[in-house]
Amino acid sequence: MRTLFTLNLRRSAVLAVLSTGLLSSCETVIDLPEPEHTPRIALKYILSNYEPQRQTDELANTRKLFVSNSQRIFSNKEARGRKDATVVILDENGAEVERFRPVLPSSPYDTFNIGSYEPTRNLKGEPGRTYTLRASLPGFETVESKLTLPAVPVIESATFVKNESKSENSSVFGQLSLTVADDPGAANYYVAFARVVNSQNNQYQGWSQVDVAEDESDVEVDLGQFQLSTVYSFQGYSYGLFPFADTNVNGKRFSLTTNVRFYDGYCQQPSNCQRPDYMEVYVTSMTQDTYNFFLARRRYNDSEGNPFAEPAPLPSNIRPGYGLFGGMTDAVYRIKLR
């Protein structure tokens, strides 16, 4: 028997799912009504203690403010950002400590930045303090979210051992190890990543990501394991971020050891070589809402649009809207390379 299940989605596309049988074929049609929808503000912003070091900063880009609005579930319109939002951050006393302005497009054809906002006061979040984000759009209900920025993680040690036999040309290979001391007095959530920098201006060739070496790229991702992430992003979304909870290591030391590689630069002339001087290892603590959001998004991305995958809804802490007001606190450990 061959059965054809067809979902007729009003004002939407038709999804057909086929299964093969032996004797005959039949068809079942399910008419699925569109759920009620009240348009709400949708946004994402991560407050941290990080200070952007240049105009184009990959880490800052993954944490920037983006504002849009929700759409009907069966809408086939492309989701677009909004450039007419008013967004502020208040401290625990209700005083305004940050206000955002829309990022101006670089050209009439620049649609990438629509919905992106930049801070006007360059607020650097302080661990332990509580902040409230408030956002409004014309014709929409004002939304709010509150968080307390988590404590600075404790990096006890970090080492990098270069693999001389494997490193060649401008690619450096080696082993990165780091150890973190977990705070027993709180539930903690972490992410780790690394980059290389020079000593002159604290940056080198952009972000200069330190990546897991290719021979480890086929290792299955285990979200229950502390592992190295990346900050490479597409349209502000980082797909290489692996959040880690201290559920099984509460109050204990935990570590990671992994083979990595990075780009060692180039020489414009033999006497003018631009090389990194340090490896910076970041261990970042995050709020529980931030952890839950990135964990769910990881599962959502891994489903790759498979309609039969286990549902992976994204949690929201924006009320009464959608999205994330997240909090991250970075600790940085510098390893001298030369």
What would you say this structure looks like, in words?
This is DUF4249 domain-containing protein. InterPro entries: DUF4249 (IPR025345). With 338 residues, this protein is mostly beta strands. The protein folds into 3 domains: 31 residues, no CATH class; 108 residues, no CATH class; 146 residues, Sandwich (Immunoglobulin-like). 6% of the residues lie in helices and 42% in strands. The protein is built from 2 helices and 22 strands. The chain has an 11-stranded mixed β-sheet. The protein is globular and about 65 Å long. The N terminus is likely disordered.
**Strand order of the biggest β-sheet:** 10-9-6-7-8-5-4-22-21-13-17
Mean pLDDT: 83
As for the number of domains, it is 3
What is the H-and-E element order? EEEEHEEEEEEEEEEEEEEEEEHE
Distance between the termini: 70 Å
Number of strands: 22
Give the CATH level 1 class of the largest domain. Mainly Beta
Query: What are the low-pLDDT stretches, counting only 5+ consecutive residues below 50?
Result: 1-24
Most strands sheet: 11 strands, mixed
Which of globular, elongated, flat, extended, rod-shaped describes the shape?
Answer: globular
Number of helices: 2
